[in-house]
């Protein structure tokens, strides 16, 4: 038993290092994490069967080696995985009869799956277990990234949803345990993909003319019994509302950004004007204090006004430093806003990618994040314009007071 555990530990270290160093990073889906997930799923499914220790070892070793052939690309990677497994295990005097079974398990993962025995079925289910797990959307996005990077297969959002929906709809788990463990969540993902497809392809649901030709009684009954025609009409209304909401968000974002830009321009104008006034005042009036002491008070007033205006103009443009990190718990509880860089610049790429995937697949989370982002943009704009209003008020009234002071000073000088 100890020897069996040792071989599994040795293979784990070897394969993890092999995939990390030999498999190109462009294979974003077939990475170390995928192999770890498959091994974990293999163990989970196997625990529900009465497998012998030898069978448990065989299927775990096959899970470790099943995608090592991606070091040279997807074509015939199962055959390469078989060769790598044989080369490594035979060098450690692994029993030939078990090695043959490991090779058969690896070859069983070729698409489309055609498992011949229980071990094959377990590994095939484990290989695509992500279809029914919480990590589905992350792994799904990685598949899309991998296809783009390695095959130049750039799909539109509609093409990708149709591609993924066709794949997951045609897939089936080969064991009852796999179906029990992952089937329910997989169907949830199917429904979510179908909703995305309807949002992207409203014309494929039902045309308005088709709905108009439906009998009125049928529509009334549909309200009680969930008639497909009534459901379709509701979906079209939701789609229309969705487009209107997206236009609203886009317009509001643009307005907020424009207002922020205007505020920054106004602040820059005030900074430039007051800096020029200060430099001129110091160079021309301060040297004349000895000859005309009455200029001291008006000059101090003018400099004070300009300095105060500069302070408030600076406050209106001063950036706020944030922590730059949300935890996974915050994202799961939908308390995060990943749409602003100040909230995620300290997060790891994997956490950020996972968080964005969670937000994208959940429309409520996405819209709530956009709403939260708009709210805080509004808070920032309110502060900007508050400081700008004070700045302009100080500059306007202070300049009036300074000019009056200079006038009185010059009138006093002329009367003397």
Question: What does the model show?
Answer:
- With 416 residues, the chain is mainly alpha-helical.
- It folds into two domains: 2-187, Orthogonal Bundle (Hypothetical protein af1432); 244-415.
- It is built from 16 helices and no strands.
- The chain has helices spanning 2-22, 32-46, 53-65, 77-90, 96-107, 118-127, 136-151, 157-170, 176-200, 208-212, 216-225, 228-284, 296-317, 328-332, 349-361, 363-415.
- Helix 2 (32-46) crosses helix 6, helix 12 runs antiparallel to helix 13 and helix 12 (228-284) packs parallel to helix 16 (363-415).
Q: Major sheet, described briefly? A: none
The tally of domains stands at 2
Number of helices: 16
**Could you estimate the helical fraction of the residues in percent?**
over 70%
Q: What is the CATH topology of the largest domain?
A: Hypothetical protein af1432
The CATH class assignment of the largest domain is Mainly Alpha
Q: Give the CA-based shape.
A: elongated
Question: Class by helix and strand content?
Answer: mainly alpha
CATH superfamily of the largest domain: Hypothetical protein af1432
Mean pLDDT: 81
Unreliable segments (pLDDT under 50, ≥5 consecutive)? 203-241
Measured distance between first and last alpha carbons: 112 Å
Listing every helix as H and every strand as E from the N terminus to the C terminus, the arrangement reads HHHHHHHHHHHHHHHH
Task: Report the strand count.
Answer: 0
Q: What is the CATH-assigned architecture of the largest domain?
A: Orthogonal Bundle
What is the percentage of strand-forming residues?
A: under 5%
Cα radius of gyration in angstroms = 34 Å
């Amino acid at each position: 038993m100890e020897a069996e555990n040792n071989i599994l530990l040795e293979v784990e270290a070897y394969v993890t290092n092999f995939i990390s160093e030999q498999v190109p990073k462009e294979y974003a889906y077939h990475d170390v994490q995928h192999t770890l997930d498959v091994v974990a799923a293999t163990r989970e499914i196997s625990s529900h069967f009465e497998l012998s220790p030898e069978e448990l070892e065989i299927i775990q070793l096959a899970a470790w080696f099943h995608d090592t052939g991606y070091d040279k690309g997807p074509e015939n990677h199962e055959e390469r995985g078989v060769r790598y497994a044989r080369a490594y295990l035979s060098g450690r005097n692994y029993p030939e009869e078990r090695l043959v079974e490991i090779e058969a398990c690896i070859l069983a993962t070729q698409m489309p799956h055609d498992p011949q025995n229980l071990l094959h079925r377990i590994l095939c289910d484990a290989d695509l277990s992500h279809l029914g797990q919480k990590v589905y959307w992350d792994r799904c996005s990685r598949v899309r990234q991998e296809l783009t990077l390695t095959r130049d297969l750039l799909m539109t959002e509609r093409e990708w949803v149709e591609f993924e929906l066709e794949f997951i709809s045609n897939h089936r788990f080969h064991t009852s345990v796999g179906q029990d463990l992952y089937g329910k969540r997989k169907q949830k993902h199917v429904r979510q993909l179908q909703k995305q497809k309807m949002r992207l392809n409203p014309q494929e649901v039902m045309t308005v003319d088709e709905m108009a030709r439906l009998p009125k009684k049928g529509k009334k009954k549909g309200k009680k019994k969930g008639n497909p025609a009534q459901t379709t009409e509701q979906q079209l209304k939701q789609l229309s509302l969705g487009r209107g909401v997206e236009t609203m968000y886009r317009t509001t974002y643009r307005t907020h950004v424009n207002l922020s830009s205007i505020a920054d321009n106004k602040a820059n104008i005030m900074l430039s004007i007051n800096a020029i006034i200060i430099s001129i005042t110091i160079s021309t009036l301060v040297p004349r204090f000895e000859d005309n002491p009455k200029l001291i008070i008006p000059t101090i007033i003018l400099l004070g006004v300009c300095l105060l205006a500069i302070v408030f103009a600076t406050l209106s443009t001063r950036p706020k430093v944030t922590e730059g990190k949300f935890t996974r718990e915050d994202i799961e509880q939908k308390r995060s806003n990943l749409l602003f860089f100040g909230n995620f610049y300290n997060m790891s790429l994997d956490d950020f990618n996972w968080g964005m995937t969670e937000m994208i697949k959940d429309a409520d989370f996405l819209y709530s994040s956009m709403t939260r982002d708009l709210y805080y943009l509004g808070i920032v704009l309110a502060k900007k314009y508050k400081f700008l209003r004070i700045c302009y008020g100080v500059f306007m009234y202070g300049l009036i007071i300074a000019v009056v002071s200079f006038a009185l000073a010059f009138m006093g000088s002329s009367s003397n």
